[in-house]
């Protein structure tokens, strides 16, 4: 969590500075931003909740640093981005701890249940968002 606020605050400034100085750095940063934008697709709908759940999923590439990059790219407010990253990291730690302390069979069952529950929750949130936007 230590570098997250710095990434959120200074990533775009640092990237533009590097891009002006070095073409190789500009290409590398373009690749990084493209990958982050690809992962940011669903997060644009539910910024805080989406970022928190993205960071909370204990898969490679979905941790706080990537969440901070995505928050910076989406221009999320600073405290919302930091708090979403923080709660996501805490939730991921709790999930990993739960899975480690359970036997392999129960960890697999828990993972399947969490996947089904998160998929169901995303569909409910999308339908809720659509109904709220259509009624406005």
TrEMBL record:
**Residues spanning the membrane:** 46-66, 78-100, 106-125
A GO-annotated cellular component: chloroplast
Keywords of this protein's UniProt record, alphabetized?
Membrane, Transmembrane, Transmembrane helix
Query: Which Pfam families would you find in this protein's record?
Result: Sm_multidrug_ex
In terms of PANTHER family, this protein maps to: TRANSPORT PROTEIN-RELATED
Which protein, by its recorded name, is this? Answer: Uncharacterized protein LOC110769318
State the organism of origin. Prunus avium (Cherry)
Per UniProt, what is the name of the gene that codes for the protein in this document? LOC110769318
